[in-house]
Model the fold of this input.
Amino acid sequence: PNGKNQMIINYRNMLKDMNKRFPDAKIIMTTALYRWDSAERTQQVEKYIIPIQKQLADEFDFVYLYDAYTEYKPYGTTTYYQDKLHPNNAGYVKLAEVMKKAVDKVIADGK
Done:
């Protein structure tokens, strides 16, 4: 399979395996984070990766997709990144705040 198809296969298998091991768990899948290190990479995330994540989240009722891409995008500055790709300590604090929203939403929705 090509790269896109292989990603779908691998992701799907991972989700199935997680569900098999932990059948009562709700899985929060976050979208890929905003890439401000490269316009080309950002387009790839938007065009390929996030749609695949949405497709897979729709396939499984135990998966909740959280849009971390949009939520974390405002923090794409040198204040929160060490190298335009990886968060620094302040960035990880912001990322934890963003991810907490996802957990809170899953709990509130009862999904």
